[in-house]
Amino acid sequence: MTLKQFLKAAVGIVLALMINATGLVFFIKYPLVLALGGGGLALAFVPFEDRPLETWILSFLKSIYTPTILIYKKRADKNWLNIDYTRAKFIEEEKEEEEKAIPMKNKSKVAEFIDSLPSVKRADEEGENLESGIKNLDLKTKNQEMGEQKLVTSNKIQEGAEQKTTDWRGAAANLGLKSEKLEATAKATFGSIPMPDIPDLPNLLVGMVTSKEGKIVDGAIVEILDNLGNPVRVLKTNPLGQFRTSTQLSDGKYLVVTEKEGFGFDRVEINLSGGIVEPIKIQALA
To answer: Are 256 and 280 in contact (CB under 8 A)?
Structure first.
């Protein structure tokens, strides 16, 4: 039982006990006692369609007392700000009348008045027009000269750019790369190490790097160069001194160069021809 259910049942029982304690007639008292006590218990413990009983009672009362008649209401006037449009129209009409009342000058009369002016003013105007024409002519000539100079300089720039492009295309690129090709200093040693195992695929290179005493050398850089001296793989030995190429190499000759600080190694040459390659041993010189 929840607190809400307890309160509903308690209120109904308390009201029933209060009615029972009164001196009402039995055929009025007992029906009220049953209605109040039973109503409280029903409100507390009798739901209908997963809803409390008071919800259905309130919905019933609301549907009875809520009006269901729709009343037509006229829409509000568009002029809800109560603006006097007649006054605005009257002001506009007054402005139009004032504009019409202003006399328009006759262009022919104005021209006649200008012609009737003394000839001195005309001469001044002609002189001013002549000076302005001379100035405009000077400006035009200057602009033409500047345009010709710009055209000449732009042509020179284009010719220089074309010469540069042709020179760049004809000249050999100098990227500062090493052109010296390394050669092998010793023969490769295969199959004389305990690990790693022989690979299952052809042209996979595995091996082990050791010191002169046969100890493991980890962190050594193993670089594989092709026949032209270009690096195709760069490997690093693991803590067991092992290295392995993850992908197959193409057929041909390769040079294996090993580097590690504090150690010196021979450069060895290997020839791959599509077969299984045994593990290669790289031993330090000192």
So the answer is: yes
